[in-house]
């Protein structure tokens, strides 16, 4: 494996898990004019910019925040912002704020269960979030968004949550690719472009870098945390099995449960055919988070971190 600085590392087994990056789809002005929400620093940047503009004397009109992309990130963010603005108003902060959530798909959360979509839409409308679907962004100017059909409207802050693409390194590697990443076998080994290519060892690809099509459902495995964790387990197991001469394990996707928080102590949980929402969904969300922490660290530390976060959330957030 050769690095840009000229150094190299030999390997017998390589697991490629470099994740993904924001996909701007080549939309003019988008990357330069928008915020993204990928980490804690991004969240602080969004918060500080909103506060700076709210307190600026230049902004005496209705303050418009547009969130492009109505997937889980866009839905959760729009709800949380609405709750935060309610708290600001209670504290006496003068702000007339409008939040618009838009997406090119026919509905929000377009790849999710219809009941989940219905509950999320109802919750967002309760908060007063404007939802625009079938709205394809074509161009971003300094304070204007242009949608397909030459529809234009103003924004003060634009947040892009419209999708991801595989790490750029996937495009120069000698493997079969799709728009989602590197195509893999059932064992999660990368599929070679040319089977005569000689590699230094076995190469596995997991997470957002991998494209795995479920033969049972004929659909791609979603780019979510839970499938990525399962893929990591299978890939690691196959490295050990290969070293010890045992048959490799096959990755078997499942109907993964998921959680979509929608402001305050309200979440929508899908487990199998069951959809649970409200405060019960929020409680399940907390238990799922605890389970994840326990899976990656000692029990005592996991409980301490989880409990600390729970106490902080309860103190700083009203009952939704």
UniProtKB/TrEMBL annotation:
GO terms for molecular function: NADH dehydrogenase (quinone) (non-electrogenic) activity. It catalyses: a quinone + NADH + H(+) = a quinol + NAD(+). Residues 5-232 form the FAD/NAD(P)-binding domain. Keywords: FAD, Flavoprotein, NAD, Oxidoreductase. Its EC number is 1.6.5.9. It comes from the Bacteria. Transmembrane segments: none annotated. Belongs to the NADH dehydrogenase family. This is NADH:ubiquinone reductase (non-electrogenic). It comes from Candidatus Woesebacteria bacterium GW2011_GWC1_43_10b.
């Amino acid at each position: 494996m050769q690095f840009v600085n000229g150094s190299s590392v030999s390997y017998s087994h390589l697991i490629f898990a470099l994740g993904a990056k924001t996909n701007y789809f080549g939309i003019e002005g988008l990357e330069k004019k928008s915020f993204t929400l990928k980490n804690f620093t991004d969240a602080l940047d969004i918060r500080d910019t909103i506060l700076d503009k709210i307190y600026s004397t230049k902004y005496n009109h209705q303050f418009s925040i547009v969130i492009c992309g109505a997937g889980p990130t866009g839905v959760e963010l729009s709800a949380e912002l609405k709750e935060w603005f309610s708290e600001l108003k209670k504290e006496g902060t003068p702000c007339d704020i409008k939040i618009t959530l838009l997406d090119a798909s026919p509905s929000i959360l377009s790849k999710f269960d219809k009941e989940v979509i219905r509950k999320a839409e109802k919750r967002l409308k309760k908060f007063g979030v404007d939802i625009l679907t079938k709205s394809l962004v074509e161009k971003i100017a300094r304070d204007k968004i242009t949608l397909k059909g030459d529809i234009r409207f103003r924004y003060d802050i634009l947040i892009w949550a419209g999708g991801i693409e595989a790490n750029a390194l996937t495009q120069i590697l000698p493997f079969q690719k799709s728009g989602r990443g590197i195509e893999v076998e059932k064992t999660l080994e990368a599929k070679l472009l040319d089977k005569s290519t000689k590699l230094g060892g076995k190469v596995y690809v997991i997470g957002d870098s991998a494209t795995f099509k479920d033969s049972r459902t004929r659909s791609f495995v979603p780019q979510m945390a839970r499938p990525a964790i399962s893929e990591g387990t299978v890939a690691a197991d196959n490295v050990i099995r290969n070293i010890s001469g045992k048959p490799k394990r096959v990755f078997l996707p499942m109907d993964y449960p998921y959680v979509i928080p929608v402001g305050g102590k309200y979440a929508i949980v899908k487990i199998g055919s069951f959809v649970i929402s409200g405060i019960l969904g929020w409680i399940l969300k907390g238990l799922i988070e605890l389970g994840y922490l326990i899976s990656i660290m000692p029990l005592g530390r996991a409980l301490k971190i989880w409990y600390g976060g729970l106490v902080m959330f309860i103190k700083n957030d009203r009952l939704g």
